[in-house]
Structure formats: structure tokens, C-alpha cells
UniProtKB/TrEMBL annotation:
Entry GO CC: membrane
Transmembrane segments: 21-42, 48-68, 80-100, 112-130, 285-306
Organism: Candidatus Nitronauta litoralis
Name of the protein in its database record: Undecaprenyl-phosphate glucose phosphotransferase
NCBIfam families according to UniProt: EPS_sugtrans, WcaJ_sugtrans
């Protein structure tokens, strides 16, 4: 009897990827050695320890950024982007560590800063070199794989289309095979690849050792057929992958998991669990601490202006829904002439007479949001995430906007993917709210450390200003 084992359902990493874990660490150590030799004078035991700590920080960031997976299925640009962003994150942790434990090493030795720059260039060059070498090997038929698709379904045609568009992966498609094959190889569904044969033809090819990879793209209801094909392929050396058709579901960060010896597919889930929580929390604490140090003086100036220009408290506090729908108190600089409570909420419109003169400026450039970095340090918010709405707005839209509450599968943020795409401030129409939710769910589905850093970078230029800010 066929029995699932959770070890059967796991991420596949090629030999080159496993090798890169070691070479990346060695590259970081060698780059600091080179920097010390040319810019810092002497290579000391402190530098050796620092380089190993840096390698550890980078490996941690790279792992959570999903860099250590098969290069066969990722582009060169995404690889370089991910590795550089992971190194930037590691550099921040290195700088903070040195600052707290040995500040003299940081300020009296320029080799460390040269190390940061040289390592970035070295990472990019090595990745480009490896890709070029692999491409040359695959051009001669080396380090390449042959693949077939079992099932002329829409999913099967989608697999074929993806393989055709990513020939650099080194996976050569031999054809699509379906039990309903007709003469002349006419396609059974609209798609780029015709059906080349039936299941018996595929089995014969696999038994002859002509097929490295078989993608099973049969409908989920065809359980018996899938089981039959797995049994018939037992005496082959082909790697077999099941590609379930989940397109009929509204997925949110769908992942594989296991429950005992049972494989489980998460349809609606959060990306921030397990070690990802640690990465997200470190990111929030490190970046928030740096920002609060930088803006400490502007915070005092704004607080003084708020107090001197209108009556009332400096800070505005309001209850909102956070992670998993739990309530928390959000902090903002007060921009209203009167401090509204939760029950009297109404959205701020353009030329709203409730807003103070200084409040208009603060809201225009999102400066009223700066106290929320304290919420981030408290663990109630994140720097990046869906913006938390007033509770009455949540209660109104959860009933009319599809999947609205899925936004609360992650911590709310000071800035987010919706905000850098222009959906910030007033949501005076259902269409605007639906677009905001669409971008928020896209962020949750594709979360990574690199994505967070990208949003933070974009927010500097267009996330905190815009025509919708009131």
C-alpha cells in the first residue's frame, strides 16, 4: 500500500546550491582578509571572529530569503538582488554588533567598510560566473534535464509554457502525454504544446531512461489514475513531481507542511511562522532603532509644534485590529483640533476642517505616523505590512470586500506594498479599498526579507507622500 512520508514532500536543492552555502561563507571571510591586507594593515584574531560572525549573519539572512534553493528555477537577476539585499541586512547586523561590543574596530579601521563593498561585488561576480559556466555546460548537453508532462490539462499546458519561457533552467521538454491522445497529436486544450502520445508511450520512454523528470498534471479527482501511474513508474529512474491544480482556490501564502506522517497543503496561511518570525522581528527592531535614533530631534520638534499650535494632547491614540484580529492601541501625532474617540470615527477628507494647520502638513508627508515606530518596538506593528484601519472601517469592509480579513494574517505595518503603489490615505470608494486589499494580499503571498527591504526603499520616495494623503 502506498504511504506518504513527509520526507517525500520537501524542497529540492541541487549540488551547486549546497556547495554555495560553503563558498559564500568562505568568500565573506576572504573578502575581509583582502580588505585588511590592502586597507587596514594587519589581519588579527578580531577580524577572523568578525568575518565568521558576518558569514553567520549572511547565511541566516540568505536562508530566510530563500536563496539556497535550486538555481535551475530562479533567474540571475533575482539571485543577485536577493544575495545583495541579504548581505545589506547582514552588514546592518555586523555594524550594530561591532558598535556595541568593540566600537574602536568600527571607527578606527576603514577595512570593514571596504569589506562591505568588496563582498557585494564579489557576490555578484561569482554568481554571474557560475551562471555563465552552467549555461555553457548546458549548451553542450551537460548539466541538463529532460522532462515530460503527464496530463494535457490546463495546468500541464501552463507547465509547458513556463518551461518554454525559461530555457536557461536547463530543463528540456520532450512533450505532453495524455491518456486521451488522438491520432495526429492534436491538442486537447488550448495551449502551446500538442499531445505527443498516451500514457503507455510515456512509460516506454521512462523505462528506456530517456526521461529525467515527470510532472504529473492530472486533475485532483483523478486519484486512482495518479496512483496507477506512480505504480507503473516504479521501475524507472525518473524523478516524479505532482503539480496539483489549486487554481480554483483563493490561496494565501500556500505552503507544504506535515501533520505526523501526513502531508498537508496550507491554503490560507501566514508567512511569518517558525524562524521567519525571528527574521521579521530582527528586521523590525534593527531598522526601527536606527530610524528612531535618526529622527529623535525631528520627533521633539514636531511634538512641540503640535502642543503650541492647538489645544489637546500631543499624541493621538486609537484602538485598531492587529495580527489575527487582536486589538492594540496605535500611536500617532495628533492632527485634529479635537481628539476623536473610536466611536466617532469618520475618514479624513480633503480640506477637512477638523484637521489643524500643522496637522495638514504632517498628514501630507505621513509625519504623523512616526510614533508608530514605538508600536513596532512593542511588537504590535511591523515596519512593513498592511496598514491598520480604524475598527469601524474594518467592520464595514469585511462584509463587502472579498478576503478583507486575510490582511490580518500578518502584523500591520507603517508602510506597505499598497502604499508604494499609490493606495494610501483616503479610501472613499469600494474600488480603492479592493485595490488596497489586492496589493496587501500580494505582499503576504510573496513575502521575503528582500521584498520588505524593497518596500522600505520605495517608501522613502513615494510611500509617504501622494495625492491621496489628507
Amino acid at each position: 500500500m502506498f504511504k506518504f512520508n513527509p520526507e517525500m514532500v520537501r524542497n529540492h536543492s541541487g549540488a551547486f546550491v549546497e556547495f554555495s552555502r560553503v563558498t559564500d561563507g568562505l568568500l565573506i571571510i576572504l573578502c575581509l582578509w583582502y580588505s585588511c591586507l590592502h586597507y587596514g594593515g594587519v589581519w588579527t584574531q578580531e577580524h577572523m571572529i568578525l568575518s565568521m560572525v558576518g558569514a553567520g549573519f549572511f547565511t541566516l539572512a540568505a536562508s530566510f530569503n530563500h536563496l539556497y534553493r535550486s538555481w535551475r528555477t530562479s533567474s540571475l537577476f533575482s539571485e543577485i538582488q536577493g544575495i545583495c539585499l541579504s548581505w545589506v541586512f547582514a552588514c546592518v547586523l555586523i555594524t550594530l554588533s561591532v558598535y556595541f561590543f568593540n566600537p574602536d574596530l568600527l571607527f578606527m579601521n576603514t577595512a570593514i567598510f571596504y569589506w562591505f563593498a568588496i563582498t557585494t561585488v564579489a557576490f555578484a561576480c561569482t554568481r554571474i560566473g557560475i551562471r555563465v559556466a552552467l549555461r555553457c555546460l548546458r549548451a553542450f548537453g551537460l548539466n541538463s534535464k529532460t522532462a515530460v508532462i503527464l496530463g494535457g490539462t490546463g495546468v500541464g499546458q501552463k507547465i509547458a509554457s513556463n518551461l518554454a519561457q525559461t530555457s536557461w533552467m536547463g530543463i528540456r521538454l520532450l512533450g505532453v502525454y495524455d491518456g486521451r491522445f488522438r491520432e495526429h497529436g492534436r491538442p486537447l486544450v488550448d495551449g502551446p504544446v500538442p499531445i505527443k502520445g498516451n500514457f503507455d508511450d510515456l512509460i516506454e520512454m521512462a523505462e528506456q531512461g530517456k526521461v529525467d523528470i515527470i510532472y504529473i498534471a492530472l486533475p485532483m479527482r483523478a486519484e486512482l489514475r495518479i496512483k496507477e501511474m506512480c505504480d507503473r513508474l516504479k521501475n524507472t529512474t525518473s524523478s516524479i513531481y505532482l503539480v496539483p491544480d489549486l487554481s480554483t482556490f483563493d490561496l494565501l501564502h500556500s505552503t507544504w507542511d506535515s501533520l505526523g506522517d501526513l502531508p498537508v497543503v496550507g491554503l490560507i496561511d501566514t508567512p511569518h511562522k517558525g524562524l521567519n518570525i525571528l527574521v521579521k522581528r530582527i528586521e523590525d527592531i534593527v531598522i526601527s532603532s536606527i530610524i528612531l535614533l535618526i529622527i529623535s530631534t525631528p520627533l521633539l520638534v514636531i511634538a512641540l509644534l503640535v502642543k503650541l499650535t492647538s489645544k489637546g494632547p500631543i499624541l493621538f491614540r486609537q484602538t485598531r485590529y492587529g495580527l489575527a484580529g487582536e486589538k492594540f492601541v496605535i500611536w500617532k501625532f495628533r492632527t485634529f483640533k479635537t481628539n476623536e474617540d473610536d466611536a466617532s470615527f469618520s475618514q479624513v477628507n480633503k480640506n477637512d476642517d477638523r484637521v489643524t494647520a500643522i496637522g495638514n502638513i504632517l498628514r501630507r508627508y505621513s509625519l504623523d505616523e512616526l510614533p508608530q515606530f514605538i508600536n513596532v518596538l512593542q511588537g504590535r506593528m511591523s515596519i512593513v505590512g498592511p496598514r491598520p484601519h480604524p475598527i469601524p472601517l474594518d467592520e464595514e469592509h469585511r462584509k463587502i470586500v472579498d478576503r478583507y480579513m486575510h490582511r490580518q494574517k500578518v502584523l500591520p505595518g507603517i508602510t506597505g506594498w499598497a502604499q508604494v503603489n499609490g493606495y494610501r490615505g483616503l479610501t472613499d470608494s469600494l474600488d480603492k479599498m479592493e485595490k488596497r486589499v489586492e496589493f496587501d494580499l500580494d505582499y503576504i503571498n510573496n513575502w521575503s526579507l528582500a521584498f520588505d527591504l524593497k518596500i522600505i526603499f520605495l517608501s522613502i520616495f513615494k510611500g509617504f507622500t501622494g495625492i491621496n494623503a489628507h
